[in-house]
User: Fold this.
Amino acid sequence: QGYLVESGGGLVQSGGSLSLSCRADIENFYAYEMQWHRQAPGKERELVARIQSDHRRVYLNSVLGRFTISRDNTQNRVDLQMTDLKPEDTANYYCKAQLYTPPREFWGRGTPVTVSS
Assistant:
């Protein structure tokens, strides 16, 4: 078993920046693909960014060029640097650890991000 804890959410004005961090207490963290998801009120949860064990990254189109995901396997941590934030980025942001073989996943409890116009 294990758990993830997100931090760094808050209130920011449109055009501002925030950095989210997720610390993982899971065995063999390096093997997991790490993901950031978000869920806005009344909307479905969506995958924002993911970083594979070899550090390859994939982003949601709407955040491409504004968000950067990174990981530090020595500290079992994944970060999401968010710049040029927009009101539509307002959501609860969740960290997820995903292993495909064998299938295993862990979710954090989320951290809120609010972007005011």
Remarks:
- The longest strand covers residues 91-99.
- The chain is about 0% helix and 55% strand.
- The chain has a mean pLDDT of 97.
